[in-house]
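Run log // design_07
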């Protein structure tokens, strides 16, 4: 779950960074090109938004093994949907 401080930091970001965060929250791990396609933002805007999100520590960058020239971006903490899915899994046991 996101802390109050992290939520406040995200609230202070520009709208493009908030949109990129939401895209990652709903879609999961994506490359920069996939984020551009999903968000309909320019590549430059997505690059800037990812930098801002990485600066506050809510997005991580990893190697995309399907194409090592690209990076894979993901949210760095469990989201509400992840928490709900783990709760559902526990109920199923």
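design_07 sequence
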């Amino acid at each position: 779950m996101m802390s109050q401080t992290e939520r406040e930091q995200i609230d202070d970001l520009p709208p493009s960074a908030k949109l990129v965060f939401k895209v990652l929250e709903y879609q999961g791990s994506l490359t920069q090109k996939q984020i551009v396609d999903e968000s309909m933002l320019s590549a430059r805007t997505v690059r800037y938004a990812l930098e801002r999100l990485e600066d506050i520590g809510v997005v991580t960058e990893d190697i995309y093994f399907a194409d090592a020239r690209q990076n894979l971006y993901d949210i760095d903490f469990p989201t509400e949907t992840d928490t709900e899915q783990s709760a559902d899994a526990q109920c199923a046991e």
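Residues 4-92 form a domain with the Arc Repressor Mutant, subunit A fold (CATH 1.10.10.10).
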